[in-house]
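seq:
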Amino acid sequence: MTGYFGPIEKLTEKNNYFRKVLFTGKNSQLVLMCLKPGEEIGDEVHRKEDQFFRIEKGRARVILGGTEKHLVNPGGAFVVPAGVRHNVINFSDTESLHLYTIYSPPHHPDGTVHRTKAAAEAAEHHH
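struct:
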């Protein structure tokens, strides 16, 4: 595929997989994510990749650098520069959090789909 075209908002809101790579280019990667109520991505650091996030549905608690905390509502976006420890947590106990992220450069193998966080953790453990 030369590029990516699609109704990103609708696709993001309908996505129920923890992680689904939609597009991988030479310098960036578009990934849909869905966190179940109370679920979190987990504390992580990407050494080489900047990461842009956009919340489409739900509310996210974002922790940067271990101490800086933000609440991000639908329509909100944030950027995590390479090397910054971060975590994204679904703020709700009842509703899923639907978001997409853009890695620059790409982070996951093209076509990656992890239906659950457990599947994602198992796959990352093998790398």
